[in-house]
Task: structure prediction
Amino acid sequence: MSDNDPKVLRQRERADYPFFLSYRTRWIDNDQYSHINNSVYYHLFDSVVNAYLIQHAHLVPSRSPSIGLVVSSFCHFFSPLSFPAVLDLGLRVTKLGTSSVTYEVAVFEEGNTDPSAVGGYTHVFVDRESRQSAPITSDTRDGLSKLLRPTSKL
Result:
């Protein structure tokens, strides 16, 4: 099974994620079918990842010498959510390389134990000016390593 196998991801639990960010949905998050539009999930992923990087990994988006660029992303949807739900966004790191990191985010409705969606993306860190690949700084690596929960290979 791959790291992004929906059958595996559907079984994720809150305990699999060491960091959480709460998100109160907005009316505008809903689409014409009265559920959160799929594009909003990527905003949620960005919010929890960047909140963690700023709060716990010493990243200052406007001044840090290196920045993370998204090179791939995914999302698997398991159950619909809609306004006015309050969401708990769980974050973990599944791979931590020299210049890249892969995040996994689970979206739980407040009070529910099963994720409604699980997705994530890979950041490649680059020099802010040259946009050339750059090693993850030691401060950022230290913060990210606290989230590392490698996926098992079956």
Summary: The longest helix spans residues 38-56. The beta strands are 19-24, 66-77, 86-96, 100-109, 117-127. The chain has three helices and five strands. The two ends are 6 Å apart (CA to CA).
